[in-house]
Design goal:
Layout: H1 2-24, E1 27-34, H2 39-50, E2 55-59, E3 64-70, H3 74-87
Antiparallel strand pairs: 1-3, 2-3
Length: 88
């Protein structure tokens, strides 16, 4: 009986690890800013949200901030980022 519980525990741990890896791969970075320009990411996130694009802000390397969107929205988000950069 103990062996069955160990097998179940291992399967649950593997499922959790697979879910974490899958969730991490759902997001792709579309814009990165650092230093004094980091507040632009907040405005860009609001801009994308107004078009129905889900996004999240993540810490990058060396005090940078990254804006990430879902993989399915990456093409539309890139176009909107270009439009945002032209307007603002």
């Amino acid at each position: 009986m103990q062996v069955v519980w160990i097998i179940v525990a291992v399967i649950i741990v593997i499922a959790i690890i697979a879910a974490i890896v899958a969730a991490a791969n759902r997001w792709q970075s579309v814009k990165s800013e650092g230093g004094s320009r980091a507040e632009r990411i907040d405005r860009l996130q609001a801009y994308l949200k107004s078009f129905g694009i889900k996004s999240k802000i993540a810490s990058g390397v060396a005090n940078t901030v990254q804006l990430k969107v879902l993989k399915k929205d990456i093409e539309q988000a890139k176009k909107l980022v270009e439009k945002f950069d032209e307007e603002f």
